Amino acid sequence: MLNVEQISKSYGPVHALREVSIEVRPNEVVGLIGENGAGKSTLMRVLAGTVRPDSGRILIDGTSVSLRDSRHANACGIAMVFQEQSLLLNMSVAENIHLAQEGEFMRLGLLDRRRMNEVARAHLARVGLDVDPRTKAGELTFAARQMVELAKALALEQRTTAPLTIFLDEPTSVLESRDIAILFDRMRSLKSRASFIFVSHRLDEVLEISDRVYVLKDGAVVAERPAAEATVPELHAMMVGRALHSGYYREDRQGVPGAEPVLEARQLTVRGAFESVDLTLRRGEVLGVAGVIGSGREELMRTLFGFLPQTGGTLKVNGQEVVLRSPTQAVAAGIGYIPRERRVEGLVMDLSVAVNMTLANLDVAMTHNMIDHGRERTIADDWIRRLHIRTPSAAQVCRNLSGGNQQKIVLARWLTAKSRILILDHPTRGLDVGAKSEVYDLIRDLSAQGVGIILTSDTLEETIGLCHTILVMRDGMITGRLDAPAEAKPSQVAVLEHMV
Amino acid sequence: MDSPPQMPELPARARVSALTTGDGRGAGRPSWLKRRLAGMAPLLVLVALCILLGILSPSFFSFRNLVWGVANQAAIPLILAMGATFVILMGSIDLSIEGILCVGAMIVALLCANDTNTNNFGWLGPLFALLACTALGLVSGLVHVGLRIPSFMATLGMWFVGLGIGTVILGGTAVRVLDPRVRAMAFLRIGYFPMAVWVAAAVFVLALLIERRTRFGRYVYAIGGGEDIAKLSGVPVARTRILAFTLAGFFTGIAAVLASAQLGQANTTIADGRLFMTITAVVVGGTALTGGWGGVVNSLVGTLTVVVLANGMVLLGISPYVHETVQGLMIIAAVALSVRRGARLVIK
Amino acid sequence: MAKTDMVGMAPGAALSRVRPFTPVLLLVLLLLGIGIVEPGFLRAKDLSVVLSDASVLFVMATGMTLVIMLGGIDLSVQAGASFASMVVAELLPSLGYAAFPLTVLIGLAVGICSGFVHVKLRIPSFIATLATGGIMTGLSLLMEEGRSVALLDTGRHEVRWITGSIFGFPNVILIAAILAAGGMFVQRYTRFGRYSAAIGAGEPAAHAAGISVDRYKIMAFGLSGACAAFGGVLLAARLSSGSPDLASQLLLPTIAAVVVGGTAITGGIGNIGLTVVGTLIVSIVRIGMTFVGVDIFAQQIVFGGALILAVFVTIDRSKIAIIK
Amino acid sequence: MAIDHEMFRAAVHRRRFLAGTAALGAGVAAGALPRYARADSPPMLVTSIRSLSNPYHAVWKVGADAFAKQTGLAHVTLVTEGNSEKGISDINAMIAKTNGHMVLNVDPNNTPDARPIVEACAKAGVYVVTWWNKPADLHPWNFNPHYISHIEFDGASSGAYIADELFKAMGNEGGFVAIGGIISDSASIDRRRGMLAALKKNPNISLLDWQTADWQSQKAFDIMSSWLTRFGPKIKGVWAANDDMGTGALEALRSQGLAGQVPVVGIDGIKAAVEAVKAGEFVCTVTSDPYWQGGIGLSMGLEASQGKFDPAKEPRIHREFNATTVKITRANVDTYIKTEVDSHPQIDWTNLWNRVASPISYS
After folding, report:
1. Could you say which residues of chain C have pLDDT below 50?
2. Which range among A51-65, A226-240, B251-265 shows the weakest confidence by mean pLDDT?
């Protein structure tokens, strides 16, 4: 029903897409995998109508269409659910679902808000989400928003006779495993209504949900497989061009943490988020915090970096009691933070690599209280070399770099700041396999250098794989503390039972 | 342009608040009640101010003052604020108010019976004034969107242009309006209220309908909430932006007609000081200059707050030497009490 | 976002290479244009007149630049300058030369207050500074019941360092030049400059990098206040008296000067070098109109049009994600 | 800033209205000036005023143009738009442009502006006349011969005069309200001083409240509305520092059906006020004559530059003086309208000193 034929698109010398052909059959889920820069997002933009291909054509039920813009793409039955949460937080769920499609609710030139809400409620019901369509999107959880986006995409079927294809761009990257299960469940039940193109970095998920899988590499399709016949290592190999070796999380390099504590929390409390949390982070230890959304772990992480002021308990850094009222104080105390929202909190996108690296500790780049641009440059170049950051130069603006490289720059910043404690808030979110493994290596290096690391991650597997110790939180309390030595990693089940 | 583009990013504003309010019952997120109260804050400020004045000056709550001292004086600022609201909701700003208002008033005066020329087109005067102001608003919009110039500068330019036109044609004279029908538009009393108040009320209802019950209204919020998302969802951003500025021009036109009718004359200084008062009113009402949050109801509250403040200073006979100081302090207090708390928004 | 825009305006790619120079280019064209119509304009003597008249505007625009870089705006500069002119006129007789630094310090303090109101009370700078400006106007009215204060002969002697000239070269231009150099230095070589750039371009990221955003914002407003005050001092010296509305009407030209230079009103992009050019463009358009003899009835229209045109040419859209 | 937004006699008829529009054409065409003035050619006439957005200065320009037409010399008008810097730099630009071969008639935007302007003129050999605003310690005789005269109109006496007329109309008893102009404006300050002085002489009259409306009728309208609710019938009269505010207040009264019952006074004699006097809604208004001001200043400069008289030899009363004002009351309003509003006064520009009234007193 939807055929992409021989699509090519290049920006200057870079070939984003090379004669890509993809077929989406009725009622099936097509998996689309590939590293960052493999051309996934460009392909999506082509289908969304926001980018015109240089050559090739798009067929819908055999008839060729040239998509003018996103509106037109919708009319042709192609809906997008973006990796970026693309809901307007200041508007109600119903308004979001019907955005730019209010036509059907106009009566005598006026919007019929009641009907708008009713219809929205129906759409929400279809994705099994029970929220008042009048609530503002900003008040929903990430998971709920994802569902709203799905509902928004589905709402299309009312408006178009064309068969519906929903393009899901890494919908799971911001979801908890529990929510992912729900999402997949919905997708399966919706297959009767629409076809899906499912993009993800998590190969296991792709295999779980897809019927067929396309592998993109360097802008070209390198393979197409029925999911049933494919395996994760195989796909990974095709995608990265190298085999997925054992010890994915570098368990072999997991050292033994030192004895002395670098960070101690006693009865740490933030009212309304979590209560009396005790934790001890030792030198060189990787401490994982697991828990579903709402368990308080997000807030715990942000509290440890001074975003949320603690309302009770004590916090000690290297034995010194500290009160962190702002990130400034946290940095002063030698704590570093790699945020979940890289593009917003991680980097100043329009400033250069070098500037971003020295942002947290400008002193290293200063000679008698003046910024020494030469010195700053050498520092930056040094990190670029040591962390294998792929960038034209240290003067390059971060916006143009891939997620993995951006993440390394954030890391480099804290290394420059000589932080002895690092808080990694979903450090591999949105990174492709290659970038991920590099980050894993870095984490091992850091812990080997005695840096204490507190980590939360999108997948339990990752948490278990990387950490020495795992704290499990539920309803704002610590409900479990498991050791995870390299040789005897606990099972996911073992962790899960503390979570729910 | 030699690397493939990536997905557009959410505006920082949206993302940051997503961080703090997104995660279930996040600590950064105030309770339902708190949020409702925060929404009410501007109104509470207004009520408090009124009570205070009522205590200090018995004549404040006198029916006469409420009608002539408050309602009648609020008419023109309210209409201006209605136009400004939509522009500000988009995160833009319209500085051309004074220029456009000046042109409008001038046209009214020169086309209907006046003491400078022999024209006497009666109703056509106000009509043409409306058309002209709407057209000027349209120009602001086209310049802003078409030339891709920040609205701040585009409308700043239009401000000068408008005043310039006024100066050229009036040549500095004050033109008196002699047409009784035009004067009636401000003074004719229906019920207890003068026409100006009814007009303002009508404009308010109109603006409310536009905000709540039209596509344009939705789109304005969408653009304010995140222009790139809106674009991707197929919102006609350019058209909406232009329309918003045109609408602002239209409302300014109505204000211009009322102003010339009320004063019985038009001159190039008729609009002096209107701009900052209008924007202050909108912000005091709790509409964010960054766009997306607030609305015409907020602007109504804000306008009343500002007008009551001015009215109160006269009622209390505060010395003109300290007017500006008192006003400044009161406005700081008002806004400080009514800004959106909770989510750490980037405030610029 | 930036990139998609670029894709949209593919031919503009070439344009974006000359972007950095467009403001200067515009300035040169402007000079030539006026020079052709009115050759007298380009005489060194007349240019020095133009420059010294532009210098006060520039001093105020410098402070404004720092604030706009952070994405804020300072509407209190004209009130601040007028206030300062009163203060310095009042203080000169009793304090002599000490009056100058003291006035600037007062300006700094007032600016810090504006910043504090904006940052700590979380009031949009547009309104916060509007209000603090009103307060300052009130104060300068109270000082002499609204009257202006003339500098006495002694005072006029003490402001020679501003009004005088070296080899026929007006000091005030030198002063402005020094300030410009200082400003550029601050922006390029100091913590403050670096951090305000970061805050302007991405406040949340700057915050998460441990930069105390609030502090630097307040500093920016403080400096803006100081610059405004200094501008007021220069004005008082040139007009040898202070008055509560001495700098009235200077606000819009100041903002125009900053933005016409190419600094983004939304913050992040820009620097004082651009403001130098912007100031020159604005004042040359203004004085040029008189020189060329544009009919005064039309001058405002021309000025408004010129503003729009200048901004159209100078702003670098490739860096502005969304044009609001 | 002298008269700031004062609305002076709106003596603009259709003729001039059209002329104004035509001026736009000329303006857009730009450069309607002789390119360069040689030393032997007659000097260029230059007028510098606040803006054309108020009738007072609009009429001023008309007078200046009339004089220029009569002499057949080129005339340029500069406006400060309330911006001292702009005003001064424009004048500097003109001096540079004409190589100092010009005469200047200037209404400085602000008291301080006078000094740099005069100094620049003296330096360049430009004959200059200033109006309304100058620092007290700046005197024409310190800049012989180029600084010819500084002329003002005694604001205090005007303020006092209209106050007295108002009190008479009130029957010398009861309360009245007063509206001032821009608070820091010298004219505003003087007129208020005069009003207060008059008040002292009338023990039975009380000043209910004094507020400022920045010369604007709109603000006066709002303030008056609030006053009416605050004082109601206690208001027996309205004193306004200029006619524009006066008419604003009058409209507020009209909206309450009080026009004509509560007497109003103002200064400037703008057309609206003159007609209000005729209608009995205004008691009186006072006018200096901007038409005359616009011409006479240039005339002084021209004659001096042509050596017809030597300013240095003139008595001091000719170098610094208050000029006479015209008082418009019920008594003379009809004739005034006939001679001044509906037609143009024929003025003998060569009679330089016939309106010298009194020396300027520095309080």
Report:
1. 1-13
2. A226-240
SS3 content of chain C, % helix, strand, coil (to 5): 80, 0, 20
Chains in touch with D (≥3 Cβ pairs < 8 A): B, C
Positive/negative CA dihedral, A97, A100, A104, A107: positive
Maximum distance among all Cα pairs of chain C, rounded to whole angstroms: 64
Reading the block at residue A246, the tokens are 């054992």
E strand or H helix that includes residue B176: strand B175-176
pLDDT of the residue at C107 = 96
**What fold is seen in the domain A2-240?**
Rossmann fold (3.40.50)
Q: What pLDDT does D211 receive?
A: 92
Domain range C25-31+39-316, its CATH number among 3.10.20, 1.20.58, 1.10.3470, 3.60.21: 1.10.3470
Longest Cα separation, chain B: 72
Q: Output the CA–CA distances (angstroms, integers) from residue C60 to C183, C226, D88, in the order listed.
A: 12, 9, 18
The topology (CATH level 3) of A251-499 is Rossmann fold (3.40.50)
Q: How many CB pairs under 8 A join B and C?
A: 187
pLDDT in tens, C240-253: 888 888 888 889 88
Same domain assignment for residues D166 and D105: no
Which residue of chain D has the CA closest to C245?
D184
pLDDT at res. C6: 35
The residues, ordered by sequence, that sit 6+ positions from D160 with a Cβ below 8 Å of its Cβ are: D194, D195, D197, D198
Among A14, A71, A345, the residue with its CB nearest the CB of B3 is A14
Closest CA to C239 of A238, A138, D80: D80
Going from N- to C-terminal start, the domains of chain B cover 40-338
- pLDDT at residue B176, as a whole number: 86
Q: Which of A186-195, A354-363, D127-136 shows the lowest mean pLDDT across its residues?
A: A186-195
CB atoms within 10 A of CB B54: 14
User: Is residue D236 located within the same domain as residue D295?
Assistant: no
* Separation CA D105–CA D102 (nearest Å): 10
Q: Residue A245: its pLDDT value, please? A: 56
Interatomic CA distance for residues C175 and C100, integer angstroms: 14
The domain total for chain D is 2
Task: Check CB contact under 8 Å for A99 and B12.
Answer: no
CATH number, domain B40-338: 1.10.3470
Average pLDDT on B92-115 reads 92
Say whether both D125 and D180 belong to one domain: no
Contacts (Cβ under 8 Å, ≥6 apart) of A290: A297, A456, A460, A463, A470, A471, A472, A473, A495, A498, A499
As a whole number of angstroms, the distance between CA D204 and CA A138 comes to 67
Q: Looking at beta carbons, which residues of chain D come within 8 Å of B65?
A: 226, 229-230
C20-49 pLDDT, tens digit per residue, is 788 888 899 988 888 888 777 788 777 888
**pLDDT tens column, C266-312:** 888 888 999 999 999 998 888 888 888 887 778 888 989 988 888 88
pLDDT of residue C10: 37
**Residue D250, domain CATH:** 3.40.50.2300
ipTM here: 0.83
C4, C202, C210 member nearest A331 (Cβ)? C210
The nearest alpha carbon in chain B to C114 belongs to B332
